[in-house]
Amino acid sequence: MIVIFDKDTLLNALIPVMYTVAGKSVGKNTMAEVEGVHLNCLTNNTCVIQTYDLEKGMRTTIDCEVEKEGSCVINAQKLLQIVRSMPSGPIKISIDSSYKTVIESGLSHFDIKSLPGANFPVLPELNGDRGFTFPQHLFRKYVSKILFAIGQNDSRPVFNGAYFEINEQQITIVSCDGNRLAFLENDMSIENKNIDGTRLNLRFIIPGKTLIEVLKLVKDTEDEMEIRLTRKYVIFLLGKFVLFSKTIDSEYIDYTRILPKTHNLEIKLKAEELRGALERSSLIIEDKLAGTVRSFVKFTIDEALSVSTQSLNGNVYDEIDIEKISGDSITIGFNCKFLLDALKVCDDGDMKLSFNNPLMGVLIEPKDDNDGRYKYFVMPIRMNN
After folding, report:
1. 268 and 233 housed in the same domain
2. Residue 135: helix, strand or coil by DSSP?
3. Which of 146, 204, 230, 315 has its CA at a distance of 20 to 30 angstroms from the CA of residue 254?
4. What confidence score (pLDDT) does residue 382 get?
5. Which domain holds residue 273?
6. Do 26 and 91 sit in the same domain of this protein?
7. Please, which residues bridge with residue 148 across strands?
């Protein structure tokens, strides 16, 4: 294989596909190929570049000058570092029958080893018979609003992803890590891309790690992205990039039972004021004291909302003006970070907090905007006094 790339073109393709390269192999039976970039150079002067960690992958096609067609797998991290270090201009990659690989640009020259392209794992079928299109800026906004409540490496698979319900008039996204729940719903027209012409009625769970990578690709524009589904995979079509990932094959929790429908106490306040109080509290909070006791932020609600905490580092007290909509007083404790994560994705302005009792948590409802209705539920911490 002999091919000449423009450095910037190759670099702009390599950086995104690095998201789906497997980490350093541990164990004798792990495939070295999943740590690499698969280059398939074709006679039409294009190169298909793809990576695949056996759970998720990415593919793109770039223009190049192919002197001799062929395919290979080059260690992804090594290739990226080499290309970055090369001077601007053309980069020539030559591979002989023993997979000795020469990468050169100007007077710079690297000799490394590559692997046969035929050994790269076969990618899943990426057509997808069901799907829809969606504005990129709304996908970015919606996912950013619920990402904080997705679990990380939780033993319960459904908590490691976000649940999507899609039909032609509405989108619903839910995430929950067992301590927090984020809910988003919006009425909107969604273009149906089902191949068989059936109505759009989709339910699926996308891993949080995949959503993080998709957010790195989507733009804050009204450009459309297409999302397609197979039985096991979700596929994102973003310009020249195709990103795919296994979905989480499990029944999602009944989130409607978690969100309280009636409340004993409802107050209204400014989101930025509560966020500021929690940020000040977080400066001295320790998550663990003496190895077992957890610090917390305490809410006392009467005519105003007092926010207080104490730890080995000191004490903090804040008081926030509120409008009491209904209900009596309450004292309740929370993990400060759990609350603050929810407040950070809320816009400034009025929001409503609703409580039942010190053991049932708080429902946070920011003001509605034109792009969605949001609800966040945060479980409390049992206080010793």
Report:
1. no
2. strand
3. 230
4. 84
5. 260-378
6. yes
7. none
Amino acid (1-letter code) at residue 132 = F
In the structure encoding, which two tokens stand for residue 35, read together? 């740590």
Q: Are residues 158 and 189 in the same domain?
A: yes
Nearest to 124 by CA among 263, 229, 264, 248: 229
Q: What is the pTM of this model?
A: 0.90
- Are 297 and 360 contained in the same domain? yes
C-alpha to C-alpha distance for 73 and 39, rounded to whole angstroms: 6
Binning the chain into helix, strand and coil, the percentages to the nearest 5 are: 20, 45, 35
The CATH number of residue 216's host domain is 3.10.150.10
- What band does 294 get if pLDDT is binned at 50, 70 and 90? low
* Residue 353 · residue 364 · CB < 8 Å: yes
Give the count of domains, the chain: 3
Average pLDDT over residues 239-257: 94
Position 292 pLDDT exceeds 80: no
**Sign of the CA dihedral running 56, 126, 214, 15:** positive
Instruction: Judge whether 253 lies within some domain.
Output: no
Does residue 180 belong to any structural domain of this protein? Answer: yes
d(CA 295, CA 286): 6
